[in-house]
Amino acid sequence: MENKKRKGAVIFSPYKKGEAIKKVVELKREDVLFELRESKLKGRGCAGFPTATKWTLVAAASSQEKYIVCNADEGEPGTFKDRVLLLEYPELVFDGMVIAGYTIGAKTGILYLRGEYEYMLKSLEDYLESMRKEKLLGKNIAGKEGFDFDIIIRLGSGAYVCGEETALIESLEGNRGEARNRPPYPVNTGFMGKPTTVNNVETFAAVSHIVVKGGTWYRKHGTDKSTGSKLFSVSGDCERPGVYELPWGIKVSELLEIVGAKDTKAVQVGGASGICIPKSQFDRILGYEDAATGGSIMIFNESRNMLHILKNFMEFFVEESCGQCTPCRIGNVKLLEGVEMLENGTYTFGYMNQLKELGKSMQIASKCGLGQSSPNAFISILENFKEEIFNGGGNHAK
Amino acid sequence: MLVLEKNAMTEEIEELVKKYGNSRSSLLPILQDIQRKHKNVSDFAQQEVARVLDIHPVEVYSVISFYSFLNTKPKGRNIVRLCQTITCDLSGKASVAKAIERELGIKFGETTKDNKITLEYVNCLGMCDQGPALLVNERVYAKVSPEKAIQILNEIK
Ligand SMILES: Cc1cc2nc3c(=O)[nH]c(=O)nc-3n(C[C@H](O)[C@H](O)[C@H](O)COP(=O)(O)O)c2cc1C
Ligand code: SF4
Ligand code: FES
Predict the structure, then answer these.
(1) Which end of chain A is more exposed for a tag (fewer CB within 10 A), N or C?
(2) Rounded to an integer, what distance in angstroms lies between the CA atom of residue A165 and that of residue A177?
(3) Structure ipTM
């Protein structure tokens, strides 16, 4: 088990188990929502929806039954910060869920843990048990009369699309993990048809710190549009891969320096569903105003073959598409075939342009974020690495 | 399936329903427990789950077929999954895969004759900072070299 304590300005700053829970029970719900609004915290799952807005909607819903769901499906290639949070900082995540329960008026929290992380299950269950013993879960939490909340853990079973919040809810309800049409949104019609907030692991972790230290403190970090810090999962060609807490607004080149990346040719920001940035754009900044990311940073050096990388991404999407809608089910197969043509040298420029157009249609016409973002890599790699792809072709395909 | 085995399975499923409840939302945890123990959810198990949850067996099958960690056909006693996604790919997945295939004498997607090991590929395991990554049943291994992979295989019972 990983146990080394890390350093960081926000998430990895000092925090004691239960600290935020003990504080929150002294506050009014509106005060918590106020601090969240002040913090300008945006969801860390990748969509970046303001957390205060989401929670206000669920808090305002008049249902007796409401649910808090922590999305620990972490399936985006190159993302592993939730693994670190759950293994090393469970107090931040679970305290954040309890705070959500208090603020929204929910009695049940569900941690949806990806099946690949089953090895964490025992230690997480034990941790929840310790919280119950310390009155941080259960009835009358932290001595607050009538504040009852508990957390259960549910496992996924190996499906990337279940990270999409409506697919996740379908999965929790015992169905195939197929995304729903929206509206209605989970904030009205979520788990079991009840108002539900689905948030990322890191979002809950940030909330715990915000409750203790305040929204204004949080907002001091990062940029105006992207407040706070971000956990970056850095992998690929660099000397020090791992999870880094860095302020939003940092340049790609600065990050590369920190992690010891040399001879870098390309940086994939946001995982397989993100975009591929070439050297000429390394002065771009990481944040919602420019290159947004759920935290996945994959580094490729000069020795790497961009077509090989693109093919790996497209194979991923072909496998993980749930097949519910045509643009995504058929589109990803077509894009993969296109990559194979490029490898074999059997493509035409006309057809490749058609495929880029197809990608753009998929971005618009697909039912959920998977199909909407799966063409990003195809479009950005073909665009940014033209020379290598069209002049090299299949000759140096690995 | 023998009658005795069937009875045991029925009993097991009824226990699981006691543990998780008989609502539809218990379906996945029930299937996951069956899968963990038997490495598949047999036709008979599907029928029984459908019966106790009062849903159609086709519903159960449809759910199983959706998730890559659930299956209806028997597999080996241990499932070894190698990450095939890009960072592991670039850090030596192919040589680990070759070493494993050579050692076991089977290809990915196949099961050893003695039914001990099924080999599969899997997508990103969230260990990209320490690739290549390998999942043996629910246990994860990082920085797996060809040599280390064989050591890991040798420890499997
Ligand atoms: C295909 C797909 C996969 C996703 N996977 C995850 C995931 O693993 N974890 C996550 O928090 N959000 C994931 N999301 C985003 C969720 O739908 C949702 O926006 C998020 O959990 C909301 O939490 P937040 O507001 O705290 O970011 C995914 C979205 C899509 C389309
Ligand atoms: S976009 Fe893809 S994953 Fe999403 S609903 Fe359509 S087929 Fe399924
Ligand atoms: S790419 Fe293999 S664990 Fe992420």
Answers:
(1) N
(2) 10
(3) 0.96
